[in-house]
Amino acid sequence: MAVCSKCGRMAPLPIGELIQRYGELYPVEMALVKVRCTGCQNWGRNIEPKWLRLCEPGCPQQRG
Description:
The protein is 20% helix and 12% strand. The chain has 64 residues and is α+β, with helices and mostly antiparallel strands.
């Protein structure tokens, strides 16, 4: 997930597109500089990654 620190909007990162465009070894932080928030049209530096734990569906720990 990516979070815009300006407006607080959260959206999934297009990981497949980023890997195709920049390659597997490109750092996530550098790719985020080129991502734009669709809510406030803010670019890059204010977009931060939010890491989520992945569990089985229905797992009580699956709360973000």
